[in-house]
Design brief:
The chain is built from two helices and six strands; from the N terminus they run ββαβαβββ. By secondary structure, the chain is an alpha+beta fold. It folds into two domains: 2-76, no CATH class; 84-116, no CATH class.
């Protein structure tokens, strides 16, 4: 699937496509760019666990790297971080809900109201 993602940026989703094949496709698309223009690409492989925003952020970082290292190239993004997210304590502001212990994101369930 091809979608416009910004002014002159596009996203191409290629389900079940190995990263080396995705790079080949990106390079073929770049070769179709008119003579006076260049095209840079960032490629990222989805690990089956990362959320969409993380995947796009990694591909965007790779695109930026391609532009900063000479343009007209394809750069593959680094693999996503594997460390599990840590619970962040949610402390109510001073004066709100006195005596209520702080929640953490790991125990707050959807629809649970938070103090404050």
């Amino acid at each position: 699937m091809l979608a416009r993602f910004g002014g002159e940026e596009f996203v191409v989703l290629m389900p079940a496509c190995p990263i080396d094949r995705a790079v080949q496709v990106a390079d073929r698309l770049r070769a179709l760019t008119p003579d006076v223009q260049t095209a840079s690409a960032g490629a990222a492989h989805w690990d089956g666990q990362e959320n969409g925003l993380g995947l796009i952020a990694r591909a965007d970082a790779a695109l930026y790297q391609a532009k900063m290292t000479g343009r007209d190239r394809t750069v593959v993004a680094a693999a996503p971080a594997t460390a599990p997210p840590q619970a962040v304590p949610l402390v109510p502001p001073p004066g709100c809900a006195p005596g209520v212990p702080p929640l953490t994101e790991s125990v707050a369930s959807p629809g649970t109201s938070r103090p404050g």
